[in-house]
From TrEMBL:
This is Cytochrome P450. Gene3D superfamilies: Cytochrome P450 (1.10.630.10). Signal peptide: none annotated. Belongs to the cytochrome P450 family. It comes from the Eukaryota. InterPro entries: Cyt_P450, Cyt_P450_CS, Cyt_P450_E_grp-I, Cyt_P450_sf, Cytochrome_P450_fung. Its cofactor is heme. The keyword Iron applies. One of its GO terms (molecular function) is monooxygenase activity.
Length: 455
């Protein structure tokens, strides 16, 4: 439609709702970034907000003073200038994952375990031991959040009066789902109480929740402040884990289909690290190709292709277009990441596009992580931690393993064929696929055995 009408702005109308789709980085920057004061709210969702109870949590709540306070809680706990205090947690979780991959028969499950455990540690300061029930609840809560966020998934968002229909009424299965999913949200949010108790006892480790609790203003309403911390922490937990899993699924799938990219990455890692050594965050400057793989993965298969919808709160005019108050605004991350002018041959997986002739980062090419983690005032506040976690796990997997196709009954490699989910959802993920993680050397196998003995 963008090409057909020669416009980077497309207007749609659905059941009386005005929907504005922004299809270029320039238009997104002009509106969502430069005019962020009126383009930072969220459309109201009866299912998510009223029935499931997410209406007062950062990802869903409107742009107001309470949102600003919760956002400040996350920003103060996760300042981009002080990411080093969380690096040991990310590295520990990554080493735990490395020992599992060689025996994995369910990649998604193991990636979910890795992501939710390190996010649990970063957000609540809770370590992996005895956290299976917490992780299971979180996985289910995040899945329900993603399902309810699919545009058009529930008629109640088009016909709000349906929220008054009782559960027993024929066809009201959405009410039962909403109640069950709300219970999951409540259980996940109550993880806060574990950290609060540890802070009181003086046994808490550094986390978003512990930092926020220590900054409570005792001269103000402490219960109200704690409620905001609970919701900000739950939002960080839900948002941080799920997107990382989807990005890593795409990374592994792309490595499986592009062994030549793997070989290039292995060469860089071997030169930078030496035999048997595992990467650390201090190695990042000497691993530009690994960073390029991360960026190209996020570009080719953005986690949230259409982002999360914004809501414009005041009538606006842009280049002669009238944008009415109350319009849903969609920033098309897929279009931005596949723009042929910025990224020639955009459907080709080519990490080298982010490097210059000397193999260093190309400063002239737009970093796609800007589109991946949202726009304007709604950009993900944990973006820098998410990128750090993705870098270290990608570098570590490629250091230790060659990602190879599964074998058939005759021991022959099966030609890898991976497809991405064609269904209309908020998030983007490859369909289930099989592969093998083959240790790259005896030195690496010894390093993996040492890691296993440490856990």
């Amino acid at each position: 439609m963008c090409r057909k009408y020669n416009s980077d702005i497309v207007h749609l109308s659905a059941l009386g709702n005005s929907i504005i789709v922004l299809n270029s980085s320039k238009v997104i920057n002009d509106l969502v970034e430069k005019r962020s004061s009126i383009y930072s709210s969220r459309p109201h969702s009866v299912m998510l907000g009223d029935l499931m109870g997410w209406g007062e949590y950062l990802p869903v709540m409107p742009y107001n003073d309470d949102w600003k306070i919760q956002r400040r809680i996350v920003n103060q706990a996760f300042p981009p200038s002080d990411i080093k205090r969380f690096q040991p947690k990310l590295l520990s979780a990554t080493h735990d994952l490395l020992g599992i991959l060689a025996q994995t028969d369910d990649i998604v499950k193991d990636l979910q375990s890795w992501a939710f455990l390190f996010t649990l540690d970063v957000v609540y300061g809770i370590h992996p031991e005895g956290t299976d029930s917490l992780s299971t609840t979180a996985v289910q809560a995040v899945e329900s959040l993603a399902l309810a966020s699919i545009p058009g998934a529930f008629y109640i968002d088009q016909f709000p009066i349906l929220k008054y229909v009782p559960e027993w009424f024929p066809g009201a299965t959405f009410k039962r789902k909403a109640r069950e999913w709300s219970d999951l949200r409540i259980k996940m949010t109550d993880t806060f109480s574990v950290t609060k108790e540890r802070v009181a006892l003086g046994t808490a480790t550094t986390s978003l929740t512990s930092v926020a609790l220590e900054q409570i203003d005792l001269s103000q309403n402490t219960r109200e402040q704690e409620e905001r911390i609970k919701k900000a922490a739950a939002a960080a937990y839900a948002g941080g884990a799920d997107t990382s899993v989807l990005a890593l699924q795409s990374f592994i799938a792309l490595m499986l289909m592009h062994p030549e990219i793997q070989r290039e990455a292995h060469s860089e890692l071997d030169k930078a690290l030496g035999p048997g050594n595992l990467p650390s965050f201090s190695d990042e400057p000497s691993l530009p190709y690994i960073t390029a793989i991360l960026r190209e993965t996020l570009r080719l298969q953005p986690v949230a292709p259409l982002g999360v919808p914004h809501l414009v709160t005041r009538d606006d005019i842009y280049n002669g277009y009238f944008i009415p108050k109350g319009s849903v605004v969609i920033s098309n991350a897929w279009s931005v990441c596949h723009n042929e002018e910025d990224y020639p041959n955009p459907n080709q997986f080519n990490p080298s596009r982010f490097l210059d002739a000397e193999g260093k980062h190309n400063p002239n090419l737009q970093d796609p992580s800007g589109a991946t983690f949202g726009f304007g005032r709604r950009v993900c506040p944990g973006k820098h931690i998410a990128l750090a976690s993705l870098f270290i796990v990608i570098a570590s997997i490629l250091t230790c393993y060659t990602i190879e196709p599964e074998l058939d009954e005759h021991g022959e490699p099966v030609k890898p064929e991976v497809e991405w989910n064609p269904e209309p959802t908020l998030l983007n993920n490859p369909l289930p696929f099989k592969c093998r993680f083959v240790p790259r050397s005896e030195e690496i196998e010894e390093s993996l055995r040492r890691l296993e003995s440490e856990f």
